[in-house]
Amino acid sequence: MSVNVTLLLTTVPDASVAQKLAADALAARLCACVTQLGSVQSSYHWQGTIETAQEIQLLFKTSVARALELEQYLQAHHPYDTPEILMWQASASAAYGQWITAETQRPFHV
């Protein structure tokens, strides 16, 4: 039996931003895993011109329950004015989906 999870894709300007966003999201348990997909070249319309930039793509894996919080975190901490944030639900294998759900539980306070 599969488990629904949420995947979130974003691009960032460099490795230090990628590492910080990933580490902080993991520490807050907003995601169970972040995969750095590597350097990509993006071309896009921005303020009336076509821009090209070298960026790093990040893929966050989170539970459906924490997806909105992860999106809000990225909106607040991303260095771009209009960050690329693409989210979609996917069916994960039962074991992987359960792992994501378990790892994205809010930390217990003692």
TrEMBL record:
Domain of life assignment: Bacteria
Membrane-crossing segments per the record: none
Family matches, as PANTHER family: DIVALENT CATION TOLERANCE CUTA-RELATED, FI09726P
Family: Belongs to the CutA family.
Protein name: Divalent-cation tolerance protein CutA
Organism: Paraburkholderia metrosideri
